[in-house]
Every structure is written in structure tokens, then in C-alpha cells.
Amino acid sequence: MTAENAFFQEAATRYASANAGTLEWMLDRPALRAGFLNTKMNSLTLADYGEADGLRGPDYTYGWIQGRGLEALVSQAAFFETRDAALSQRLDEAGRALFGLLKELRGRDGHAYFRYDAGLRPVRAADDSAVTAQEPAGDVFTYSDAFTAKGLVAAASRYAPEELPQHLRYLADVIAAIEDGRFQMGEEKPLGGEALACELDDFGPRMILLGAAGMLERCGLSDHTAYAQRFIDHVIEYHLDETTGLLRNVPGGDDCNVGHGIEFAGFALDHAPVRNNPALVATLERILIASFRASFAECGLHLTVSVSSGKKLTPYRPWWSLPETIRTAALCHQLTGSADSLAIWQQADSAFFEYYWRGAPAIAYQTRTADGPTDYVPATPDLDPGYHTGLSLLAAIRVAEALSTSHPAYASR
């Protein structure tokens, strides 16, 4: 057996074990009020957040997390169905319950919101943490809509196929909002009006919705993925810096969120038609390699770098960019067999499990700096519900198992 084969086989087993551990940890925890997923734990102290923790505490439910969690529950239930039937059944039970809760929330006015208070009313918080009611979204859509729409479609495809049309329309509405200027990224500001007009053309929304393409294909819904190539073409045309291979957050800007660039490449490679386009695959692999090399230091990837100077612009290295790198590098390597993509896969794997993964419980430190784990929240205080880490590792499992058994470059026979 070659060293590469040994890595693929060991990694696939370890990733499945890590995912199972996270899911069992999450399912064993008491639900939040109304029955939502509860990942409200401090990743440094392992203490549960309580009411004294304010916006991090159990009085607040985050639409982002619940939408992500639903997609993760459904996807992992399908994966474990033939590997751990008892876990798959538990995941389906939780998935059906969360499906019902999110349908109810979204059914109020056609939207999901970033944060809900104890009465499940949409609220936003100022810089001083003062909480006020959020404006109705109206014809504006947000990341919370994006994550919730993805979760609802995934859940409907498994639990209620007859409901798919309404959830696919919701997803299509989010996509349309991105393309006609009605998508607001900043959900702590009043939705619509002035805040929407001030937003820059960041590629983040297209990147996140691109992630639905592979999911739709696995659900047998490839007819609904035509938008994906438009999104890929747009990002490459307007955001790719040809000199460095990095993606500018906004056209003409200098900041590059390297994790988002790597995530974009991974989502694009997960879209089946892309795999038959060698030139595009090469471009996506270049984005991966450039982004990783520009930002990785010591234990992880710096959140932001300068495109022009290469300077790392923040000391923070969040956990999520490493599993996203694992996914993207695995998908690249499956298609190209390049030494660079394999080396990045192995380096990201080593860094994540050495510096971030806690093991007991099966969670990761949210953020590190050069000095070690730090109490910095990248987006939401709730820990990852099997989304960034779980779905990334799940994609890498599929690749590792395929490479270790059938890939002509690595077959042991």
C-alpha cells in the first residue's frame, strides 16, 4: 500500500469518527427553548453559555446556526444510513423536528432572521449589545435566508418531497435577490433601505449559494442548478486577481478573505458540470493554492490578507477555513492528482486536528492566534452544528474512499 493510500484510508475513517462524535455530542445536549439545536458552549472553557452571557446565551436563537444545522443533520443522516443506522435514525428524528420549527419561523413572513429573542421575535444588536427589534425583511434577503433555504430544501427532499416546490421557490428567491441587488449581508443593521444601499459587491453571497448546487445534485434536483455557472463566472470575472490568484472581497478592493476564496473553489468543484471543464478546474486549484499559501502560518489560516502586499491583516485564524481547505483540496486532488493539492490537504488536516480539534468533546476551538486559542467569535457564538466541519469532512470522506479504492493513480493493486 502506498503512503497516499494509507493517508486516504486513515483520513476517511478519522473524519467519519469525528463527524459522528460531533453529531452525538449535539444530539445529547438539551434542546433550546422550542426545541432548537443547542451548541451554546464556550470552546475554550467547555462551559455552557447561560443567561449571564447575554447574546451568547440561551435566550437568543440564531437563524444562521439552525439553517446550517438542518442541512448538516439531513446530509449526515443519509451518509450514516448504511454505516450507523442508530445514529442515522437519531439524526432523522432531530432533522424532522428542526424542519418543522424552521418552516414555522419562515412561514411568518417568508423569511428567516439572524437572531431571535426568547419570544422568537427577530432582533438585532448594536455595538454596545443593546437589543432592538429587527425590521421586517420585505423583499430583502439575507444570509439567514440562504442557510435556511438550503436546509429546508435538503430536508424536504428527504422527509417531504411533496413540499419541495415551495422550498425551491424560497431558494430561487434568495438567488434572484443576489442578482438584482436585494441581498443584505449585514444583519445587525435595519434590513433594507440605507443599509442595503451601502453594501459593497462582496462575493460572499454568491459563494454561499453556490454551495447549494452540489446539495441539489445529490438530492436529484440538478434541474435547479443553472444559476451556479453564472455565479462562478461572475466571481472569476470580477473578483479574481490574475497576478496573485487571490479573490478580492470586492472588485477593485485589496482585502481577500482567504477562507471564503477556498470555500468558493470547493463549492464550485462540488458542482458536477465543473468537473468536466479542465481549464476551470485549473483556475479553482490555483485559487486554492494561492489562498492557502498567502494565509497559512503556524496553526491556521489568517482571516484576511492584502492582495497587493500579501500582508496578513488580522491575527485571527478561525477554525472553519481549515476543514473548508480539506474539502477543496480533496476535490482538487481527485480531479488533478497534483502534488500541491495533496500537500495542502495533508497540511490542513494536520493543523486542524493538532491545533483546533478538542476530541472530547468532539468540537473545535473557534479561533486561534499565534498565542493560542482565543475568545473571538467569527460569526455566531453558537458552535458549529456539523456544517463547516461536518459537511467539509463528509465531502473529503467521499473523495478519500474513492481514491483509496479506484483512482488509477493510487489503486494499491
Structure description:
This protein is mainly alpha-helical and 413 residues long. The chain folds into two domains: 1-29 and 222-413, Glycosyltransferase; 31-199, no CATH class. The chain has helices spanning 3-28, 63-80, 85-107, 143-159, 164-179, 193-198, 204-218, 226-239, 258-269, 278-295, 321-336, 339-356, 388-405, and strands at residues 61-62, 115-116, 123-125, 131-133, 141-142, 183-184, 255-257, 296-297, 300-301, 304-306, 317-318, 367-369, 372-373. The longest helix has 26 residues, at 3-28. It is globular, with a radius of gyration of 20 Å. The protein starts with a helix and ends in an 8-residue tail after the last helix. 48% of the residues are buried.
- Beta strands, count: 13
Strand content: 5-15%
Annotated CATH architecture of the largest domain: Alpha/alpha barrel
**Number of helical regions:** 13
Tell me the number of structural domains: 2
Quaternary: single chain
Give the overall shape, derived from the CA principal axes: globular
Look up the CATH topology of the largest domain.
Glycosyltransferase
Low-confidence parts lasting 5 or more residues at pLDDT below 50? Answer: 409-413
Strand order of the largest sheet: 11-12-13
Distance between the termini: 8 Å
The major β-sheet equals:
3 strands, antiparallel
- Under the CATH scheme, which class of the largest domain? Mainly Alpha
Provide mean pLDDT, rounded. 96
The gyration radius over C-alpha positions equals 20 Å
What structural class do helix, strand and pairing data support?
A: mainly alpha
Helical residue percent?
Answer: 40-55%
Order of helices and strands: HEHHEEEEHHEHHHEHHEEEEHHEEH
